[in-house]
Amino acid sequence: MAASKASELTDAIRAGTSGRTDTAALAEAVAERASGEGLLDIAYCEIDSPLGRLTAAATEGGLVMLSFPNHPLDQTLEELAERIGPRVLEAPSRFDSLRRELEEYFDGRRRSFDIELDWRLIRGFTLKVLDQTNRIPFGETRSYAEMAVAAGSPRAFRAAGSALGANPIPIIIPCHRVLRSGGGIGGYGGGLPVKRTLLGIEGIEIS
Fold it and tell me: Would residue 111 count as lying in a domain?
């Protein structure tokens, strides 16, 4: 039944593209039709940035993952398929707003993001920490200990660090704004050069 539905979908899209052979256009049309038919779990695209190529993924609920270049595309898609659903298609136009907002941020013209987020991959204490992290203003920093306090567990600063390291939507949820007590840069899933770059964009210099 599912195979028959998928075949019908593909045939319909081929007919609707008026003979075009452009792969990107076909993929976009497939994703749009699949979404309309309730056959799409996750849309994704790759976005060029000063940090390298990012991978963005979204559900109907919003942006669910943003991966750095050190997280391979295949690995990202496999993780999404396992954790959310196997129906994953490339759909670049869905990310036009994200692409624009990221460009403005990297150019120093944006201080906050208006992108809808899907928090389903974030649970428990990690959710508490990242919810508080999402409230840190542009150009300000907090310590791991402060985030533990904000999340309601003052002694859990190491767990707060682990929660920040598990952030599936970096940059947008600004875990780069959390440093070690005393101002040390701490760790970062995208690598310390990336963290320094993001902090530098916000006027924060770390020795």
Answer: no
User: Residue 20: is its pLDDT beyond 60?
Assistant: no
Range of the domain at 190: 124-201
Q: How far is CA 59 from CA 22, 94, 205, in A?
A: 25, 10, 35
Is residue 68 a contact partner of residue 194, using CB atoms and an 8 Å limit?
yes
Cβ count within 10 A of residue 37: 13
29 lies in a domain? Answer: yes
Residue 117 maps to a domain: no
DSSP state of 142: E
Structure-token pair, residue 54: 């990012």
Could you report the per-residue pLDDT of 117-166, keeping only the tens digit for each? 999 999 999 999 999 999 999 999 999 999 999 999 999 999 999 999 99
Confirm whether 116 is domain-assigned. Answer: no
* Catalytic residue ranges: 175
Do residues 89 and 169 share a domain? no
Cβ burial, residue 144 (10 Å; 0-12/13-18/19+): buried
Name the token pair of 176: 């780069």
- CB atoms under 10 Å from CB of 95, counted, come to 23
8 and 98 in a single domain? The answer is yes
- E strands present in the chain: 42-49, 52-59, 62-67, 88-90, 142-143, 178-179
